[in-house]
Amino acid sequence: MFNKIFHSIFSPIMFLVILISSIYAANHELYSPDHLIKVGFRLKHGVPYYFVEKSGREIVRSSRLGFRFKEKINLCSGFKVEKVEYDSIREIWYTVWGEESRIKNYCNIMRIYLEGGKKKGGKLVVEFRAFNDGIGFRYFIPEQRGLEKVNIMDELTEFNFAGNWDCWWIPAYRPQRYEYLYKKTKISEIDTIHTPATIETDIGLYLSIHEAALEKYSSMTLARKGETGFEVDLVPWSDGVKVKGKLPIKTPWRTIQIADTPGGLITSHLILNLNEPCKIKDVSWIKTGKYVGIWWEMHIGKSTWELGPKHGATTENTIKYIDFASRYGFKGVLVEGWNVGWEKEWAGAYPSPMNFLKPYPDFDIRKLSEYAKSKGVFLIGHHETGADILNYERQMEDAFKFYEELGIPVVKTGYVGWGRDLPRLNEKGEVVKEWHHSQYMVEHFRKVIEVAAKYHIMIVAHEPIKDTGERRTWPNMMSREGARGQEYNAWSPDGGNPPEHTTVLPFTRLLAGPMDFTPGIFDLTFDEYRPKNRVNTTLAKQLALYVVIYSPFQMAADLPENCEKRLDAFKFIIDVPTDWDETRVLNAKIGDYVTIVRKKKNSDEWYLGSITDEEERSFDLDLKFLKPGIKYVAEIYRDGENADWKTNPYDIIIEKRKVDWNTNLKLYLAPGGGAAIRFKPVDEGE
Ligand code: NOJ
Predict the structure, then answer these.
(1) E strands along 329-388, which residues?
(2) How many other CB atoms are there within 10 angstroms of residue 193's CB atom?
(3) Which CATH fold topology does 496-686 show?
(4) Cα-flanking dihedrals φ and ψ of residue 506, to 5°?
(5) Ligand 1, from 416, 481, 489, 555: best to mutate by most atoms within 8 Å of Cβ?
(6) Which residues pair with 197 in a beta bridge?
(7) Would you list the domain boundaries of the chain?
(8) Which of 18, 31, 388, 562 is geometrically suited to a Cys-Cys bond with 522, CB 3.0 to 4.6 A?
(9) Which residues of the chain have pLDDT under 70?
(10) What pLDDT is attached to residue 118?
(11) What is the reported pLDDT for 15?
């Protein structure tokens, strides 16, 4: 009876208890639903600090919180705790698309209301959320002291780790934005880095530091402080201010994902859970899929983006790609170099020559859109801004409208520049240059998503701002690059991505969200075009990447003729889905290997991707993820006995085996190799 009354008064989803605590209490504590993770808050002489533990193991030691402002307001010291609120969330929500169709958002909440002293002291609220897979906290700066516009000069948040642990990171404030190979060093050897940054502790835990729901704020980099800690280093505007805002301000969430295994980081949904629910009412036009395109041929130098004798984006060539897509069931055909502007200096150029409404004369966009439609496919548009935001924002609305009229539902955007040269008109009307990952660009990228949604357009962004889970709120934000992708194998003077790179990405960049890596190169050496470059994998590993690297839009990146030469292997790319019900990690060691299985949405089919670095490996895989009592045909694409990424990358074995959930599957991965498997329930009579 009590239970009934209790539940009718308090909703089972949101259980709210307000505790007015004593302002003298030393610690305020919050536990995750499984009671293993603890977050603590305390004031030391009026300065706010927090700490994090799991099962009694210290993760983050006493670390500072607060802000410095340009205005006369003190939000860093002199505080008293005014009140503490406890809340919780117990909800299940459904994704529009993703690695999982159903996500559990269970967390406990603690809100600390701080009040400063009389002189300059202000009000600040810190909200902590504790999940079973980590913690998040954000600040809420309410309206106060007659202030409206404010300038944050520093966010004082620290992460003082309890040990000098190993960390995988990429440097911040560099010309290639997020496109660097990840390094693994001790925390003490780091300077300033981007997030997500991943830490392997020596206390049996794996951590990822990142942020969620980055909006109207500058992006967070981490600057090392002391031997084993970081402090938040917000990317400044050109005038040195870190964040320009209007009160009230809600900051992005600062997140620490905590897992007992590396795979636990991959299956954590903490970042998505800290984003707002979907804002698009009718999502029926948002669909995942696979695409091909006029792209790799420019990267290897077979054709050019700009108009000329080797122009790639001609009507004739596009027809060839449309036919190819239609023949094998691909939905999209990307065409780069279709518009006026590429013939001039465009990368990081100001003013940019790009015109997003004017096709080159040899590219009949209307005819091609119609032709694509008649073949059951669509064109994917391309906006290479060359990082001139002013030029892009002037044309953006018309450019999306133009694409919508033509029936082009996906646009790939690009921001090639040198990281710190993005033009903005300041208050005096002068052009100033901003960082690629500044608040200016955070706001620009969000604007693009929202304007695109208005015209029913999905976005795949290259040179993007890092992903902080926006896809939950704006599911038309499909995929991004934001790391070294396949293209580095086509032209990078350093020899491209080493075999290890893709065994690091799932535990670093991919924890932020989907990546448009563009796997699927079949001619791995392309000697005819670039004898000094090559793809540093076996052929089987190219297939495995479709499962390992999640993206709702996956490209089959190679030239049609190369794919058609290996139709037996290409079949895996034709079959593999891009939308899943469930994801599990069967084994993993960061930077060495990873095996992931995913269940196709609304189906009993499972897909497996397993990859290794330059070392060969043999795995005994347990297939307990399969449905008991059902027989499956496993269509296996694996490295042959003599395969080796360097000397013999094409040695692939394609075979079928009957398996069930009791089968123990032995899998061999060659140096730089991988395996891809489709598990298909056996049909009657098969
Ligand atoms: C860099 C992007 O990553 C790539 O995909 C694109 O082809 C070029 N920029 C040109 O826009």
Answers:
(1) 332-335, 378-384
(2) 24
(3) TIM Barrel (3.20.20)
(4) -60, -20
(5) 416
(6) 209
(7) 13-273, 496-686
(8) 562
(9) 1-26, 684-686
(10) 83
(11) 41
Locate the ligand 1 atom nearest the alpha carbon of residue 384 and give its number: 11
Ligand 1 atom with minimal separation from the 412 CA? 5
CATH architecture of 13-273: Distorted Sandwich (2.70)
Best substitution site from 303, 462, 463, 491 to test ligand 1's pocket, by max atoms within 8 Å of Cβ?
Answer: 462
**Cβ–Cβ under 8 Å, residues 175 and 422:** no
Q: Tokens 């518009």 correspond to what residue?
A: 339
Lookup: tokens for 541: 């590993």
What is the spatial distance between Cα 424 and Cα 438, in angstroms, rounded to a whole number? 12
Instruction: Give Cα separations from 502 to 193, 248, 534 (angstroms).
Output: 20, 41, 15
Fold match flag (13-273 vs 496-686):
no
Q: How far is the CA of 611 from the centre of ligand 1 (A)?
A: 26
pLDDT confidence of residue 8: 37
487 as an active site residue: the answer is yes
Report pLDDT for 686.
Answer: 52
What DSSP designation does 147 have?
Answer: B
Tell me which of 99, 481, 487, 635 is the catalytic residue. Answer: 487
Give the span between the Cα atoms of 517 and 454, in whole angstroms: 27
Q: Which pLDDT score is estimated for 221?
A: 98
Strand-pairing partners, residue 107, are 89
Q: Quick one: pLDDT at residue 26?
A: 60
